[in-house]
Amino acid sequence: MQVSVVTLFPDRVADVVRYGMPRVAVEQGALRLSLINPRDHTDSPSRRVDDRPFGGGPGMVMEAEPLARAIATARAAGAGPVLALSPQGARFDQAWARRLAALPAVTLVCGRYEGWDARLQDAGVIDAELSVGDVVLSGGELGAMMVIDACARLLPGVLGNAASPVEDSFSAGLLDHPQYTRPVQWRGWAVPEVLLSGDHAAISRWRRQQALAHTWTKRPDLLEGLSLSPQEQEWLRAYIAQQVDEAKR
């Protein structure tokens, strides 16, 4: 997978492939990172890429031409879709990560200041916007690094266990079940007995129930529209009734 990132701070984004799964992906040849600085594509002697907004207002706006040239450089190398990191974009989630990880290439554009000249989208230079949350950051670099990390771990052969990404939170529409490791007893707290039973069917059932419970408790919105078996629906109703009853005590 080729990932091109258009950014004013290439050294910062480069850090994402120096650690963790992105580093493994690069070492295995599953991921290639290309960094393109708009300052290298401006005619300004001072390498300026921003200017004051028409109509007045605070802050500066990234100029269209340097960004367009930088994106054209990425497209010439087979850039794939051009996605700009923006709080106004579509919400980036695990489904987006799977979709992007299946592509041969993608270009991520990191905005700065008050954003970029809107004509970049009018002219089709930017294909779409992605948001990593309802929050305004100083720039798109952290968001781009998050996208790269999420996609890298989904690339074939990157994770040691092929089942790991399948069992992650959000992969099946639910949050992950709780995890435990040694020792069996820790400060008076014990590992659930079912996990020590060796009964794989019981363990699988317990994990699914715990995933449902975690999702209802922490992110009930994820349950909307999710297809549950009649048995799972019955168990979830019983769990909710139990929690409501305990809350009343």
What does this protein structure show overall?
This protein has a five-stranded parallel sheet with strand order 2-1-6-5-7, sandwiched between helices. A two-stranded antiparallel sheet has the order 3-4. The chain has nine helices and nine strands. Strand 8 and strand 9 form a beta hairpin. The protein starts with a strand and ends with a helix. Helix 4 crosses helix 6 (141-152) and helix 8 crosses helix 9. It is an alpha/beta fold and 249 residues long.
Give the proportion of residues in helices. 25-40%
Going across the major beta sheet, what is the strand order?
Answer: 2-1-6-5-7
State the total count of DSSP E strands. Answer: 9
- Specify the structural class: alpha/beta
Please state the CA-atom Rg, rounded to the nearest Å: 23 Å
Number of helical segments? 9
Mean pLDDT: 93
